[in-house]
Amino acid sequence: MRTFKLTLAYDGTAYAGWQVQPGRPTIQESLETAFETVVGQRVRTIASGRTDAGVHALGQVVSASIQAALSGEALRRALNANLPRDIAVLDVAEVPPDFHAIRHAIRKRYRYQIHDGGVRDVFSLRFAWQYPYGRLDAGAMQRASAALLGCHDFRCFQSSGAERRTTVRTIVDLTVFRNSSNEDGHCGGLGDRRDWITVEVEADGFLYNMVRAIVGTLTEVGRGKQPEHWPAVILATGDRGRAGPTAPPQGLFLVNVTY
Prior knowledge:
This protein is α+β, with helices and mostly antiparallel strands.
């Protein structure tokens, strides 16, 4: 058996998330079906994280062990020839047999895109939260986010449904910024690029819906509904009910995984 590390990009719009679910299209099912076509065997794939329905990836990492003589590049080409057009294998590298996409991950980085222009950007509906409550103060959101840096118990930013042994995580970077140029846009349409806010979060791990709960909380500060010290108060209480809403999935991207 040979073990490979795959790096994937995908548009998650049409899928019920990463993990195989009976009767529903998933990224994992599509990848394992492509593997079966290419190598003639059912291959178990393990992703660094189970992205939810509608969530995208720029650099998802997957481990898989197969019995085949193909080179990494030949495997990449063959898989791409058999995958749907909204999933792409960017890179394939042979790794030691014990490599595990989940256990060996050190950090993950996510990006969340918000479009808060007065008119929705119809070309980015699948790739951003079309924020309906007016212009956000990205500076206030950035200042409010400082309280979340470091090692904390983030149970107040976790949705129910995926129990973990511990809810303690360490955020090493949390950045909120508005694009200042009308020339360098983010993903999406043809309107004013200054209507885009990006939230980037990097941590040693994430709880279920943690990034989306943080984004939903920061937007409450950005719209002026809550003060800048509010995230720190929520963190101290540990109460999910006191935090902001869970932001919708389409604005979220898994950017990369560090090993």
